[in-house]
Amino acid sequence: MGRFRFRLAGLLRLRTQMERVARQQLAGAMGAVAGVEQRLENATEGLAECERLGCGTDAAAPFARALSKGLARHRLRLQNELRAAHAQLDRARGDWVERRRDQRTLDMLRDKRREEWMQSQLQREQHELEELARGRTPAPAREEETK
User: Per the domain annotation, does 2 fall within a domain?
Assistant: First the structure.
């Protein structure tokens, strides 16, 4: 019995590589979103603390109010950055889903072709066994004898 060869094996390897790269990009985009979310949470906590201190009457109150204004601007920039990171994440997720679908399609085709090949090999072997049982030389063996 010969070895199974999938004619699109090179394409399958390429699609597998492309899926792996897309998955890595997705992971990077997820990490970027998580980082921005963490920075935004820190800025929000700092802003709340500065607003609490700014309501006081001690010497630090004017500094806390000024810092809270700066943190509010920083928080707004981080919210914009978070929206951009989410948009990048959505694009990366869509790209990964497309690449994964392409790879799975080729995987299923390869599995189907392998199953067809296995069936044809089993049929060929069964035919050869039947020929041997009848006392005749199987067709492929007869061809080799005449050469």
Answer: no
